[in-house]
Amino acid sequence: MIPTTVTKGPGERLRRIRLHLGLTTREVARLSDSVATQQLNGEFCISHARLVQVENNGSLPSIYKLFTLSAIYGLTLPELLAYYVDTEAAGRLHGSMQLASTHLCSVEGTNQNQAASLPRCSTGGAAADNTTLIAGSLHAQSDMPLATTLRLDGHKRRYAFIGRSDYTMYPLIRPGSFVEIDECEKVAPPAVYRTEYDRPIYFLELRTGYVCSWCQMSKDRILSIPHPLSPCRARSFVFPSEAEVIGRVTSILMRLTEVSQPQKVGNGVPVAQAHGDSAKV
């Protein structure tokens, strides 16, 4: 069994793994040559002297070197990277930065028993105004388990944050919500739906951002249709040069408090002012 106890830093942990495998530093250096050859990049080589420095905590391995050690030691790259940084902190930090755009995100590797993190509004600093795909993970900052809100079954799903100035689907989807997206490339043909909840909602990637809305195809154009109670207007894009379909929204993680009210409409997107800093999911 590979020792898991932390002793004297990441270099010592790497040394203990190497010794457990019965490898010398020169043997690791030799094996790294084969990795570099297969990857067609000399950066993947790690010399005997460099490995000694790394194990003595006198040098930080590059991402290429960590990849090589991952291949040789049989550990995943995220495992080795976690020796040097708190990898799970990236998702928490991402949520606290309150970025200005609506964006897609990834929850790969997130424990299903962890809780979902929703960025909080703030009266100071930049607000997360626009809709974006999320590039970080959703980690524990609230008391709602992620598994109860988003299905993490790996079925071609992506995740996105609806910007706090994006009122396109308000009040059906409030600004500041997270949405789960089942990847697809086409919009379903027009149909009669019993309720607004039955009508499919799509997530589109535009040239300069994203939009989450009902959609309809018309020849070579795709029409983005907002909720009828939204102050936003419908928009038409050339498909697929001006807008591409990321997928269909299948789940919503939404705050029921801390909703901003649109102040004015500019370019189809209202400008909102946040109220308060406490919220519940």
Please provide a written account of the structure:
The chain is an alpha+beta fold and 281 residues long. It folds into 2 domains: 10-81, 434 Repressor (Amino-terminal Domain) (Orthogonal Bundle); 89-273, Umud Fragment, subunit A (Ribbon), CATH 2.10.109. Helix content is 21%, strand content 22%. It contains 6 helices and 11 strands. A hairpin with a 2-residue loop joins strand 10 and strand 11 (269-273). The protein is elongated.
- % residues in beta strands: 15-25%
User: What is the number of strand segments?
Assistant: 11
* CATH topology heading of the largest domain: Umud Fragment, subunit A
Number of individual domains:
2
For the record, the CATH architecture of the largest domain stands as: Ribbon
| Outline | elongated
Whole-angstrom Rg: 24 Å
Report the structural category: alpha+beta
The end-to-end distance, rounded to whole angstroms, is: 42 Å
Q: Summarize the biggest pleated sheet.
A: 9 strands, mixed
Fraction of residues in helices? 10-25%
**Unreliable stretches covering 5 or more consecutive residues:** 1-7, 108-127, 136-154, 264-269, 271-281
| Tally of separate helices | 6
Q: Give average pLDDT, whole number.
A: 78
In CATH, the homologous superfamily of the largest domain goes by the name Umud Fragment, subunit A
Main CATH class of the largest domain: Mainly Beta
**Order of SSEs:** HHHHHHEEEEEEEEEEE
